[in-house]
Structure formats: structure tokens, C-alpha cells
Amino acid sequence: MAESRNADDESVTGVVEVEFSLSDPSYPFVGLSRAEQCRFELAEMIPRADGQYAEFFTITGLEPAEILDRTADNDSVEVELLEAYDDGGLFELFVGDHCPAVRLAELGALPRTVRGIDGHGYITVEVPAREDPSTIVETFLEEYPSAAVTAKRQRDRATPRFGESAFRQDVRDSLTDRQWHVIRTAYEAGYYEWPRECTGADVAAELGITSATFSQHIHSAERKLLTMLFTDDREESDRA
Length: 240
Prior knowledge:
Layout: E1 15-22, H1 28-36, E2 39-47, E3 53-60, H2 64-71, E4 77-85, E5 88-95, H3 100-107, E6 110-117, E7 120-128, H4 133-143, E8 148-155, H5 165-174, H6 177-189, H7 200-207, H8 211-239
Antiparallel strand pairs: 1-7, 1-8, 2-3, 2-6, 3-5, 4-5, 6-7
Helix pairs in contact: 6-8, 7-8
């Protein structure tokens, strides 16, 4: 049964953090982590055209070639290697609305972590004050019967998405002027909002370029940003 919201909820300015566990092996981050004893860690999730989403995962504990081989026959996901490590790599996974993290985003939650460890999947989301956590949880559990709520807590504020000015400057330096202009225009137009406020075609029209050219620039910029961000994190972890 869904929990009812009380009158005080309207004054809440923070977020509700909810953690789900999943056991359905049809999700790659669950099934592959069970079969190969590797670890999946979501780096970022970005909306694409036609209801598709690109999910960037760091996968460790298995050679990159083996990961690509294991996912080659899965029609529900397309996998591309972005950066290879000794024991894994950074991968881009194109998924549809079957993905539970995607569905939670569509319901109004903000996916913060998605992990697959030894056949157990975990998704942590933050629900903004403007949304009803009980409705989101109840709807999600009805649609994904293998899921269960493992934790629910109130937080004073949302988790920051990125770091401070030093990282921003590094990102700017890594992109071409065209890539920077395209991704900044997309951001300002609401391309990365949940739900999305404009399509890639809308941004392309504003820039005076074709949709194909927009996709080329935006994908190149995103890949540079994510590869730089999560490769740096891995190197710092290795040095610790």
C-alpha cells in the first residue's frame, strides 16, 4: 500500500532517497554480473532520440572483449567500448524503456547510482520535493515485480551532479569550440531535463544544423566528458 503524504510534505525542500534491489537477470547489469562475477557501476545516463537512452557504465572484473562478446546476442541493448582498462572498461550502453533506471527517470525520480554486483542489482534514486515518492515507488514496484525497496530516507538536499570550476575548465579545454557550443545550447534549451524539454531536432534547428550533425557533435562531446571524468576517478582510486 502506498504511503499517504501529510500536510507537512508540501513544505519539504529536500529530496527523498530510495534504494531498490533487483534480481531479474534479463537486465545486463544484473545478469552479466552474476554469470561472470564482474561489477557494473553507472557513470551517467543520457536521453537519446525515439525513447532510447545511453547509459555509461564502468564494468570491472572482466576483459573488455569478453564483455562485448557476452552482450553481442542481447537484442535489447547495444554496447560500445569507450575506454579499456586492465580489468574492464568504460562502456556506452544504448537501452530502451525496458531499463528500470530509465523508467524511474520517466516517473520523475533522479537515478543517482546503478550497480550490479554478483547478480544483485541496486538502483538509488532521489525524488525531488515536487514529486510524490509513494506514487513513484508504488508504480515502479507494480511494473517491476522483481524489485524491492531496501532503504528510504529524507535528505536535506540533492546530490551535486558535478564538481566545481576546475573540472568545468578541464571539460572546456577538452572540447572543440563546436562541441562546446552544441552541448551548451542543448543544456540551456532543456535537452537534459527530466522530462526532456526539447528534442535533438529542436536544438539542431536552433543551431541551424542537421539532426545528424547535432548527434555527431553531442555524442562526441558527451563521450569526451564522461571518459575524462571517470578515467580520472579510476586513476585516483588506483593511486590510493
